[in-house]
Specification:
single chain, 364 residues, mainly alpha, N-terminal domain of TfIIb, Cyclin A, domain 1, 3 domains, disordered C terminus, TFIIB-type domain-containing protein, TFIIB, zinc ion binding, TBP-class protein binding
Length: 364
């Protein structure tokens, strides 16, 4: 027994099929009543039994809504709600009126999904404001549903912070890089500290969630790509340079025994600021620490502090083609003791470089 073609095959046939009788591309029309695809040149039926997947009824005016509902199906089910989100509604009497007593008693009953629906709506608004995909949005709703039970109070935790923390965790799971500050920007009436507290609460409440998120950790390299795109520096060579600087800086710090890590956003912003100073291109013109701070969400002082940590390693971090441009780097501000130590250490580092350029220190 022959089966009807799949919807994807039907759509492809409508726009890419060539009439086998005419042996050339022709205009094809769809006969909705018979379910046929017909060639307009020779009248040959190319496909039959095409299933119409559009809605069975369309309402064009408000006056049509006053009559009997012609739809025979309900809305889609939602696996996150009790009983798939299906509920009972009280219909109209034959004369078009409602039974007020029965409707009042029905509405008086407690709806266990009402609070969840309101929470899902708020999470969706935050996700749309932050430009997140539907996958992240659904993941955040699923996390919130798993942690917060109906009727269970959230002692010491605000709802906006719980929504934001759920979105942050969903971003981590899907590999979408968002920092706490970026999430806080789309969550009104909350702070980064509150979101961090709710984040720890959710991770502790769900066993194994922290292990799953470790596979999608936020790294400076991932943030660099997004920051450069927002700064108009989406150049492949520039991205390679900034990524190489970050990777080398991390390895050098680990080699020297530094176990504490800085914030990924501050490291990414500092690497961009370092690369902007030696980059030969119009895109880098006019970009300063203030502009990078606005895009990354980090304070200028924090970026300059991370930049000061990177500066002594410039001769080792930069590729050979950029070593001769090291004198163009802006030296960080420091006291006399730090300047003397830096000058003594850089003398050996720069001497090993191919061009042997010396870094200039600011006047004290």
């Amino acid at each position: 027994m022959a089966t009807a073609p799949s919807p994807a095959q039907q759509e492809a046939a409508k726009f890419s099929q060539i009439c086998r009788n005419c042996a050339k591309p022709t205009a094809i029309i769809e006969d909705h009543q018979q379910g046929d695809l017909v060639c307009t040149e020779c009248g040959l039926v190319l496909e039959s039994r095409v299933v119409d997947e559009s809605s069975e009824w369309r309402t064009f005016s408000d006056s049509d809504k006053a009559g009997v509902d012609p739809n025979r199906t309900a809305g889609p089910t939602n696996r996150m709600l009790a009983n798939g989100g299906l509920s009972t509604s009280i219909g109209k009497n034959p004369d078009g009126t409602y039974n007020q007593t029965l409707t009042r008693l029905h509405n008086r009953g407690a709806n266990p999904d009402r609070a969840l629906l309101q929470a899902f709506g708020r999470i969706g608004e935050m996700a749309d404001h932050l430009g997140m995909t539907s996958v992240v949005k659904d993941g955040a709703c699923d996390i919130y549903r798993t942690v917060v039970k109906p009727g269970q109070p959230l002692l010491g935790k605000s709802q906006p912070a719980m929504f934001a923390a759920s979105l942050y965790i969903a971003c981590r799971q899907e590999g979408t890089n968002r920092t706490f500050k970026e999430i806080c920007g789309g969550a009104p009436n909350t702070t980064v500290k509150e979101i961090g507290r709710c984040y720890k609460y959710i991770v502790k409440a769900i066993d194994g969630l922290n292990t799953q998120m470790m596979e999608q950790m936020i790294t400076p390299e991932k943030l660099t790509n997004r920051f450069c795109g927002n700064l108009g520096l989406a150049n492949l060579e520039f991205l390679k340079l900034a990524t190489a600087v970050i990777a080398t800086f991390r390895s050098l710090r680990i080699t020297e025994g530094h176990t504490s890590e800085k914030q990924p956003a501050s490291v990414a912003a500092a690497a961009i600021w370092l690369c902007v100073q030696i980059w030969r291109g119009e895109a880098a013109e006019g970009i300063d620490v203030k502009r990078i701070s606005e895009i990354s969400g980090m304070a200028e002082a924090t970026i300059l502090t991370s930049y000061a940590d990177m500066y002594p390693y410039a001769a080792k971090m930069l590729p050979e083609a950029y070593v001769e441009r090291i004198p163009e780097l802006e030296a960080p501000r420091m006291d006399k003791s730090d300047a003397a130590a830096l000058e003594a250490g850089l003398a050996g580092l720069i001497g090993d470089a191919e061009h042997g350029a010396l870094l200039s220190l600011p006047p004290l």
